[in-house]
Amino acid sequence: MYLTPGAASTLGERLLQHGISRRSFLKFCSILASSMALPAAIAPRMALALSNARPCVIYMSFQECTGCLESLLNSHGVAIENLILDAISLDYQETLQAAAGHQSEQWRDEVIAANYGKYILIVDGSIPQDGNSGYFVSAAESGLARLNKTAAGAAFIVAVGTCASFGGIAHAYPNPTGAVGVRDIVKDRPIINVSGCPPIAEVITGVLAYYLTFQKLPTLDSLGRPTVYYGKTVHDDCYREESYEDGPRAKSFDDSFARNGNCLFNLGCKGPVTHNACSTLRWNQGTSFPIQSGHGCIGCSEPDFWDAGGLYVRGPEADAEHDD
Questions:
Q1: Burial per residue of 9-46, b for 16 or more beta-carbon CB atoms within 10 angstroms, e otherwise
Q2: Residue 243: its pLDDT value, please?
Q3: What's the whole-number mean pLDDT along residues 134-159?
Q4: The model's pTM
Q5: What would the CATH number be for the domain defined by 54-229?
Q6: What is the CATH superfamily name and number for domain 232-324?
Q7: Which of 35, 73, 102, 266 could be bridged to 318 by S-S, CB 3.0 to 4.6 A?
């Protein structure tokens, strides 16, 4: 991901190195545009913008499990979809780089100074909001101090995952670290929340591609999430939705209704109140999503989802007359 001396400096050159044709790349851009509800005619413009782009990106990890980064890196394996990462210059990412501690933070300071006001800051994980708590200290600097220093020079911030967006699991009761999302700390920078535990990799890719193409942020909802991906609930486009209204709903995970594609609402599915693109983009190259695999939505892209109720708590309408 990092450039080496003599390496190709643009995505177009990297594509040639990987043996990817212009036609294949245009097809990828068409798919990406479609995922963002953009007309197919945008694809050539997107391809041109991505081919010539290499903005500096600082990717900072805080209280997280590395699941969001794994989701992005392993979205489709080693394929053209991953080459979008070559459209950016990933100049700092502690999990992937060799340096640590003082060396790591010194390099981050150098990257900030060289690209002040122009770099994209990606934040993964929740932040201990008390700078004196002793949590998440690196090179004698608290996580709070490192975030504030880096955010000050960013063009905008992408909060990747529910932890960075809303605090996530670390924010759940009793929250011993005082964990919060980025927007609870940074007030003077544009912030895009790409929530999910983890978020869908193509959503992260789409947000970056949109900015690189149009040089502006996508339309956001009241929680700072891009509406093109979070404007609908998981339930809205769920293939099990019809039996939510007309029944019968599944009563257990192994009954005939669950196996035949009936609604899992009575088993605790949070799809009707969860905004995400799981039922449209799906996972693993569009193969499936949790509900298709027989498990109800757990609401992972919403604030406080760990404290909002048990994963298998029946919904308030679970005893409705069309349950039978």
A1: eebbebbeeeebeeeebeebbbebbebbebeeebbeeb
A2: 93
A3: 92
A4: 0.84
A5: 3.40.50.700
A6: Cytochrome-c3 hydrogenase, C-terminal domain (4.10.480.10)
A7: 266
